[in-house]
Amino acid sequence: MSDISLLPQVREFLQREHAHFIDGRYCTSASAQRIAIINPANGEAIAQVAAADTADVEAAVGAAHRAFTGSWAATSPYQRGVILNRFADLIEANGEELAQLETLCSGKSIHLSRMFEVGQSAVFLRYYAGWATKINGETMTPSLPSMAGEQYTAFTRREPVGVVAGIVPWNFSVMIGVWKIAAALVTGCTLVLKPSEFTPLTLLRLAELALEAGVPAGALNVLNGNGEVGAQLIAHPQVAKVSFTGSVPTGLKVGQAAMAANLTRVTLELGGKNAAALLPDFDLPGAVAGLIQTGYVHQGQVCAAPERIYVPRARLEEVAQAFSDALRGAPIGSPLDESVQFGPLANKPQLDKMLGFFATAHEQGRIVCGGNALACPGYFVEPTVVIANSAEDSLLHEETFGPILTLLGYDDISKLPGLINDSPFGLTASIWSNDLSSALRLIPQLEAGTVYVNMHTFLDPAVPFGGIKASGTGREFGSAFIDDYTELKSVMIRY
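The chain above was modelled as a monomer; its predicted structure follows.
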């Protein structure tokens, strides 16, 4: 087993003096603060990036506002779609470079970086590009009384809200960044992206490709730094909308700050403690394979991934053994090694968090497999399965955002909605069954933004995605995103 060779352009990119992308150029910063970018596979620094100061924030928002009222406003809807499609072409053409940079920063498998960060980003961009010429209002006839023969007509317009602040997490920086870029640009907005301080490099490269595709200078800007930079963006008077993807505690603060700033629009795509319900007739091999694929993808660091599995009590031990058999011996190692199935966690804080959950698992439940960190450089842990003692165990209620699946037996299918809904979260849930009648009857009872049947986690650009309860507000994808990036203006005419 060995790592793939890094491309020369990847090595060259890592050697740059990294800061920000503002008003169409890769720029430096007056700030003295530097953030080390750590490769989670070995714990070593691969680059440094400058943190933004107040002057950088002002420059980025100012550039975005000028483009919103100028060059991007003057770009026709058709041409916006052409530019986004050209952007998708460039992502694919530079796909291996982007994938390697992302794997070096985030620790995700090189296969996953190629397939999702690159491949799916292009798919989503092309989908959004198709909406460019289809953002419409409607006409109507008012029922106002005519006093002297006058008549009335009315129509609505969808107008872009303005400058968007997009705050991107570390788990899928390219793909989630592209969602925010595409939604803003296709509706006529401009934006300032703030990547996670753990994974900033791919979005800087992406901004260069956007400029090459024809996105005007200032329409897309990238600012690096910690949470203070995000707070400055949220509070800025020229920021009309905030799109945040991340944890629930941070999301609550973002939402409150946005409302306090200027009743600023906000979309929050937050975490979840997502449930999977195995109904009595479930297919054991299919369900276990599907839940391993979706529960441990990117080491479980996926907001929509299943974390708690409800199993008919009579089959609990059988299911636990099937998980154990499938996971034991799975290759764990460098994410740049194409033969490896599980890579490292994305950063040191995430490793520390998982070690705390492992300690909880030893105290509260029965560990079927895993539950340990690997004694090697980097942030590696074992994929873990735990059987809970009761429905009150904290592992069934706290989001781990990691490679831990917790099983709990149940006796009566009528109790499943109560078990699944006993959570402050409501992002996703899944039902595993060949009994379509039972599945369809259960779906309306589950408090989740997305319910899957015999699958989990997968996203499609045509299907709206978002959470309820503490899992967020607003929707991505489909046509639903248009509501969050445009203002509805009504026009009434007397003639």
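The chain has a mean pLDDT of 96.
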